[in-house]
Amino acid sequence: MLKHPVQKLATNNKGDLLYTLVKDTFQVYQVSSNEITKIFEYKDTYKVEDTPKETSSEEPPVKKNKKSKKPSNYQPNKHQLENYEFLRYLNVSPCGGYVFVISDFDKSVLVFNQVPKDDTYTLSLVKKQSFPKRPNCLASTDKFLFVGDKFGDVYEIDYKTSETSNVEGMKPILGHVGLLTKLDILEYDNKKLLMSCDRDEHIKLSHIPQSFIINKFLYGHKEFISSVVKINDYVLSSGGDSFIMLSNWKTGELVTKFEYLDLIEETDIVPEIHNALDRFQKQGEEKVNEFCISDMIYDEINNKVYFAIEGVKKVFVLNFQESEGKLELESTIKVNNIVLNFAFLNIENKRKLIFNTNRETNESIVEILDNDNLQMDSKSTELVNSEISKNTESEHFNIADKDNDMCPININHNLRKHVDFY
């Protein structure tokens, strides 16, 4: 029986905690020099509503709204689901004391508190905060959590209190016209900026707490943005364009662009992922392929940028020369499965790159790369895979129907709006 992959993973700043999202379950693993152990698990579900009062037989029955009938030429995006029963995204607070998980259940964000205790950590649920629209991305300061939704609005909540806000009374602090894809916090001279990215190529920097004051925009993209990385005065951004863009966020200057399409070989193309939908193909011409970046991460110790192209079984390594503002390809590493997202993990007394996969082969839930020699670390990979497999053996994590039982994992390309086609 096919098992569900880890759709998202992350680590804490120290690198000794590994957070995973599998289907509707949040799991936390503690890592020592040569051992990994699960220390926490939380399975999310819908809130239990109060039992509705019985209506009098004299009252007329309430008519149910009929679902709108889809047109005969309706063609859904790949991996588009009718049901929403998954955990989608997670992040760790700057202080490392809180973990945030975006949940499809009740359009909510789960806030967990984690406290060091002896040689381990204790985690507990602080609150489950629902939002007017489905959350899609988040970022946090030492006290406040900023949540961006699929309608372009950003909300602010105090995550250190257990009190929840009334959904109907919540008001956004800023907004975009399009779906929000990434949020992050930038700091300088004791001031904070909220960086918000969307489906419509915009990167906006707004002041905190005066979010109505726009500091600047970072220009250069023409397609959606799916990944951003902070590097001191620079921001790396990428998505549906054919390049990775390096900008100076303090001056707003576009420093350079690294083109990555030439790195893709014919054998890397997966038609189910990279072919544009039929309605965007032209009869009698070659198939139109579309590529985008699934994730990026920066190794500040070795000044390297790792990135993955969605649907491609490779990890690409760039050398970043900060003084000159240059990005140069250093290495291309073939891996066994499609890469979903990256994190750094301290294992066997070394800081290594860990990434989750689409689990095309059941034994490869995650893979680990040695940052120093850029070689795959089979020993560490086996150690982590063994523990995650042991904790996802139950039938709950089985996949009988890929269209309904699996969280969409290759989703960034669905953000493309195909403006040039119309």
Topology:
Blueprint (H helix, E strand, L loop, with lengths): L7 E4 L5 E6 L2 E7 L4 E8 L43 E6 L5 E6 L4 E10 L2 E11 L4 E6 L3 E6 L3 E6 L15 E2 L4 E9 L2 E8 L4 E6 L5 E4 L7 E7 L2 E6 L3 E6 L4 E7 L11 H4 L18 E7 L4 E6 L4 E8 L4 E9 L4 E9 L2 E8 L8 E5 L4 E2 L1 H13 L11 H4 L17
Antiparallel strand pairs: 1-2, 2-3, 3-4, 5-6, 6-7, 7-8, 9-10, 10-11, 11-12, 13-14, 14-15, 15-16, 17-18, 18-19, 19-20, 21-22, 22-23, 23-24, 25-26, 26-27, 27-28
Portion of residues in helices? under 10%
Sheet with most strands: strand arrangement:
1-2-3-4
Q: How many runs of DSSP E, i.e. beta strands?
A: 28
Number of helical elements: 3
Q: What proportion strand?
A: 35-45%
What value does the average pLDDT take? 89
Q: How would you sum up the major sheet? A: 4 strands, antiparallel
Parts with pLDDT < 50 across at least 5 consecutive residues: 50-59, 61-82
Shape designation = globular
Q: Oligomer, anyone?
A: single chain
Structural class: mainly beta
| Rg for CA atoms | 22 Å
Description:
There is one protein chain. The protein is mainly beta and 422 residues long. 5% of the residues lie in helices and 44% in strands. The chain has helices at 271-274, 378-390, 402-405, and strands spanning 8-11, 17-22, 25-31, 36-43, 87-92, 98-103, 108-117, 120-130, 135-140, 144-149, 153-158, 174-175, 180-188, 191-198, 203-208, 214-217, 225-231, 234-239, 243-248, 253-259, 293-299, 304-309, 314-321, 326-334, 339-347, 350-357, 366-370, 375-376. The protein has a four-stranded antiparallel sheet with strand order 1-2-3-4, covered by helices on one side. Strands 5-6-7-8 form a four-stranded antiparallel sheet, with no helix packed on it. A four-stranded antiparallel sheet has the order 9-10-11-12, with no helix packed on it. Strand 5 and strand 6 (98-103) form a beta hairpin. The chain starts with 7 loop residues before the first strand and ends in a 17-residue tail after the last helix.
